[in-house]
Specification:
InterPro entries: Metallo-depent_PP-like (IPR029052). The protein is α+β, with helices and mostly antiparallel strands. The protein has 2 domains: 37 residues, no CATH class; 133 residues, no CATH class. It has 4 helices and 10 strands; from the N terminus they run H-H-H-E-E-H-E-E-E-E-E-E-E-E. Strand 9 and strand 10 form a beta hairpin.
Length: 171
Amino acid sequence: MGSTTEPTELIDRFGMETVKLLWDSVSRETVQWLRNRHFGFLQLDCLLIHGSSVGVSDELTPETPPWQMLDRLQRVEANSLFCGRSGQVFEYVLQGGSVNSSVMTLDSQQPMQTMTAPKRRVVGVGNVGREPGKATYTLYSPNSGLAEGEALRDRLEFKTVYYGEKKGFAN
């Protein structure tokens, strides 16, 4: 489904037999429709995407190094990246800051440059079906005040729903 016509990542991960079974199960019309879909949804300063700004199979988790998270966010100029590839629910916050740099040669020193990065975050949105009978998901409400007179702020909640024999909500 990517930019190449060969499903090399799928074959490497699941094997040729499984990929062929998938290919034979999905109509060519559906494959073409999927190829024409957008890679993700960018609204306000938030990007919703399956993997990351690098690719669909890029799996971001709470263990991903900060420099890698920042790279994925800067590629799309988003302050919040919502991703689902890992299947986990998490909030990974990168605090804002700045870096001063200059270049010194044998002849001269260049003026100092300051690069500033705002506070950013990566949010794992959860999954349905990886663990039978359990679904995890994320609720995001931008600029919502919790009580009258309280300053507006983003609200993020993680939820779990159990289905089947043991049904209901849990935190």
